[in-house]
Design brief:
The chain is an alpha+beta fold and 150 residues long. It is 33% helix and 24% strand. The structure holds zinc ion.
Length: 150
């Protein structure tokens, strides 16, 4: 009985955290600077310390200088002393991290962590769709610094 109660407690905490990350990623999406693509993206990630960091995409007229929401959030977290990501959420129309973000996420995320991808656009009246990808499944044979002797 006690074990069952503990599992239920943990499950409800996980559900609450997932909902909180989605809510914060949606808030961050509102700050996206995307005058060129008009494709706003928001991200939120839970780190080992329990702190949550958010990010949005920030574009530039020199397109190559633009930055994705996920990497913005990762760099904010790392520059605040975080080294381990526990859960990540990305919100956009057909949201899913790009290849560059996947490699950066792999560098800092727990392999068992989930990337919560929320297909959602604030201006569309469609219901959001959520899929979860395990971090260990983000890339096929990713660049592994330990195998490269780094
Ligand atoms: Zn990206």
């Amino acid at each position: 009985m006690t074990i069952r109660r503990e599992k239920t407690k943990r499950k409800s905490w996980a559900v609450k955290m997932k909902n909180k990350l989605i809510e914060l990623a949606k808030k961050a999406q509102k700050h996206a600077y995307c005058p060129y693509s008009r494709y706003p993206v928001g991200a939120a990630m839970l780190c080992e310390s329990g702190r949550i960091y958010t990010g949005c995409n920030v574009e530039n007229a020199s397109f190559g200088l633009s930055m994705c929401a996920e990497r913005t959030a990762v760099f904010k977290a790392v520059s605040n002393g975080e080294k381990k990501i526990r859960e990540i959420c990305v919100v956009a129309k057909s949201a899913t991290p790009c290849g560059a973000c996947r490699q950066v996420i792999l560098e800092f995320a727990d392999k068992k962590a989930n990337v919560i991808c929320v297909d959602w656009q604030p201006l569309e009246k469609k219901k959001e769709k959520i899929i979860q990808i395990r971090v260990s499944k983000l890339l096929y044979r990713p660049f592994d610094p330990s195998e490269a002797g780094l």
